[in-house]
Design goal:
Number of helices: 10
CATH architecture of one domain: 3-Layer(bba) Sandwich
CATH superfamily of one domain: FAD/NAD(P)-binding domain
Distance between the termini: 12 Å
CATH topology of one domain: FAD/NAD(P)-binding domain
Largest sheet: 8 strands, mixed
Shape: globular
Structural class: alpha+beta
Number of strands: 22
Low-confidence stretches: none
Strand content: 25-35%
CATH class of one domain: Alpha Beta
Length: 403
């Protein structure tokens, strides 16, 4: 099914992160005759959320039964391991501990174990002595060991998806940030920062931190706004303190998993992240401020409602951001042997968190379909883990949009 006369492609995918590239890859496999173009505003793929995280292949234990996160993470984790093995991408299935520090956390820990078993995930509940068998420096009153959690290099995965899609005929254009969208009955015409116009029969919005802006450019109301949260990481200068992955019991009120320790494929140990409001959508430090983006966040009613509900939590996160000693104290809840000078600051990431008008944080993946368009509007962690099944689903809806 070749592109019709006058069109540059059949499907234009906006965004060259792992979800956008998975979608392009899935399109080339599902419909080899369909012409696919990926428009990425940066000079290379995976420079934002995909390339700035702890690289964890999540098992799916955290996510509610029936949710998109559960469905896609459960299948996607095993598929991601196979993809890495097939293409020689560094990865490992290390397992992880979710550690309860206090008795008050035990009901939530037991609920996670029960959810894991319901999902068919191999989990074991451990006492204090068994915790030390897995992680000699970790301390807690109880833990759950999740055997199927792993790590990989998601940036390398995205690069391989781009190469595979291009080998199958897709075009990936870098430096092609979207500045305008003209949607007509026949399709869309997209103008990029390079001044070129790309005409397509259907559009897929996988723009991550910019996804709500792209949705509005198409004329669709996304019903949410991206409120960027910066996650700050440290490296452990004594990586021998951690064998694998050590996590706290998460607070169910937030879609964040808390400060944790992750031994990556390079042998280093990432510590973090926290979650503080960023002053720019790509604001990887307090010194990066974009007033227009801050104003856009403040103009969204949901941002104020969210802040009024969760200001105490946010104040604690901000304090840990500016006070390394406070961050180290949080780490010592899991690993008492960590000293302040064991932590060395490293690259931060920014989470594209969708906030709804009522102030609630979108917890599940949020994907909406418009006329000749599919918008991926909330795809933070575990989207990288789940990117292959997400890409197939979005590709299917994009092909339906062509009709």
């Amino acid at each position: 099914m070749a592109a019709r006369a006058g069109f540059d492609c059949d499907v234009l995918v906006i965004g060259g992160g792992i979800v956008g590239l998975s979608t392009a890859y899935a399109l080339t496999r599902a419909a080899p005759g369909v012409r696919v173009t990926v428009a990425e505003k940066e000079a290379a793929p995976a420079l934002h959320q995909t390339g700035r995280n702890s690289g964890v292949i999540h098992s799916g234990i955290y996510y509610a039964p029936g949710s998109l996160k559960a469905r896609y993470a459960l299948s996607g984790s095993a598929e991601m391991v196979r993809f890495c093995a097939e293409h020689g991408i560094a990865h490992g299935v290390t397992g992880k501990l979710i550690v309860a520090k206090h008795q008050s956390e035990l009901p939530r820990l037991h609920a996670l174990a029960a959810r894991g078993r319901a999902h068919g995930i191999p989990v074991r509940e451990l006492g204090p002595a068994q915790i030390r068998e897995h992680e000699p420096e970790a301390r807690g009153v109880a833990a759950v060991h999740v055997a199927t959690t792993g790590v990989c290099d998601f940036g390398a995965v995205a690069g391989q998806l781009a190469r595979s899609a291009e080998a199958a005929g897709a075009a990936v254009r870098y430096g092609a940030g979207v500045v305008a969208v003209d949607r007509r009955s026949w399709g869309v015409a997209v103008r990029t920062a390079l001044g070129e116009v790309i005409r397509a029969r259907a559009l897929v919005n996988c723009a991550g931190l910019q996804c709500d802006r792209v949705a509005r450019l198409t004329g669709d109301d996304p019903g949410m706004r991206i409120v960027p949260f910066r996650g700050e990481y440290y490296e452990l200068t004594r990586p021998d303190l951690v064998r694998g992955l050590v996590y706290p019991v998460p607070d169910p009120a937030f879609p964040f998993l808390g400060v944790h320790l992750t031994r990556g494929v390079d042998g280093g140990v990432h510590v973090g992240p926290n979650a503080v409001p960023a002053l720019a959508r790509e604001g990887y430090g307090w010194g990066v401020v974009r007033p227009g983006e801050v104003a856009s966040t403040l103009a969204w009613p949901g941002a104020w409602r969210m802040a009024s509900r969760h200001w105490r939590y946010g104040a604690g996160e901000m304090y840990r951001s500016v006070a390394k000693r406070a961050f180290a104290k949080e780490v010592r809840r899991l690993l008492p042997a960590v000293r302040d000078d064991d932590l060395r600051a490293t690259a931060a990431g920014v989470r594209a968190q969708a906030v709804l008008r009522d102030g609630s944080l979108a917890d599940d993946f949020l994907i909406r379909r418009g006329r000749r368009a599919v918008h991926v509007l909330n795809a933070p962690s575990p989207a990288a883990t789940a990117s292959l099944p997400i890409g197939r689903a979005v590709a299917r809806w994009a092909l339906e949009a062509l009709d």
